[in-house]
Amino acid sequence: MSQSSSIDYKSLYEAAQLQADELLGQVQELSRQLAQLKKMIFDSRSERYLRSDPGVIQHTLFDQDTLVDSPVVETQKISYEKRK
User: Fold this and answer.
1) Cα–Cα distance for residue pair 51/42, rounded to 1 Å
2) Which secondary structure element, helix H or strand E, spans residue 24, and what is its range?
3) Could you write out the DSSP letters of every residue in 28-56?
């Protein structure tokens, strides 16, 4: 047997292991994204849904000051008769 070309199996193994680790990371990231997209598409939507981010503040639809300070309007009853 001739040893004219020596193959460094250790470096080849380390390169393959590094590539496998990178691919595994990509698979995990894509799986996470897929799960998030499935949740966005197929989960039920509800106004009772609570955000996982506590830093996000939900604003009210109406300002409380304008509801309290609204003036009372006087009303009158109107009736009519319709002929056939």
Assistant:
1) 17
2) helix 9-42
3) HHHHHHHHHHHHHHHSPP-TTPPPS-TTP
